Amino acid sequence: MMYWDGNMGVWGYILMGLSFVLFWGAVITAIVLFSRSVGAGNRRYEAGGAGAGIAEHLLAERFARGEIDESEYTARLTVLRRGRGT
Question: Which run of H or of E encompasses 73?
Answer without folding.
Answer: helix 70-83
